[in-house]
Amino acid sequence: MMKNLGRIMRIKLFNLPDAKDPYALGKLGERLVALLLTKQGFLLLGSNFRGVGYEVDLITQKDKLIVVFEIKTTLSGNMDYLYESIRPAQVRRLTKGAQIFCQQHQINYPISIYAGLVDLSGNEPKIEILEIL
């Protein structure tokens, strides 16, 4: 079941990356979500945590809960597609990455997995935070 954690955030943007550069587009989405989360009281513990068989875009903590994020960014305005593009295998990789991160940093809190969906199609970005697991 999806749970909306926060309001849609609007920030003025300048110099949007070219749609042909998905890496730059994704990095912008990650930065915007990280900014929103820190404004909402999340502590950013890590970003782009990668290893064999896992990848986590953002790792945060809110109180005694570890919240990991898969960030998806679009210029098309189709945020439903972004959420649907997160497959079960990717959720398993997020879970594995979060568990490894917590082991390496000796963190023993429950883990939740969320998606940060970023729409850059309008004059201002829209961000939705939705629970995956």
Please tell me about this protein's structure.
28% of the residues are buried. The protein is globular. The protein has helices at residues 22-39, 79-84, 88-104, and strands spanning 43-51, 54-62, 65-74, 111-119, 126-131. It has 3 helices and 5 strands, in the order αβββααββ. The longest helix has 18 residues, at 22-39. It has 133 residues and is an alpha+beta fold. It has one domain: 3-Layer(aba) Sandwich (Trna Endonuclease, Chain: A, domain 1), CATH 3.40.1350.10. A hairpin with a 6-residue loop joins strand 4 and strand 5 (126-131). The protein has a 5-stranded mixed sheet with strand order 1-2-3-4-5.
Our measurement of the CA-to-CA distance between the termini, rounded to an integer number of angstroms, reads 8 Å
CATH class, please? Alpha Beta
Report the principal-axis shape: globular
Compute the number of helices.
3
- Return residue spans where pLDDT drops below 50 for at least 5 consecutive residues: 1-14
Which secondary-structure class do the elements indicate?
Answer: alpha+beta
H/E topology pattern:
HEEEHHEE
Largest sheet, order of strands side by side?
1-2-3-4-5
Percentage of residues in DSSP E strands: 25-35%
CATH topology heading? Trna Endonuclease, Chain: A, domain 1
The average pLDDT is 85
Helix content: 25-40%
Got a strand count? 5
List the domain count as a whole number: 1
Radius of gyration: 14 Å
Main sheet characteristics: 5 strands, mixed
The quaternary structure here is single chain
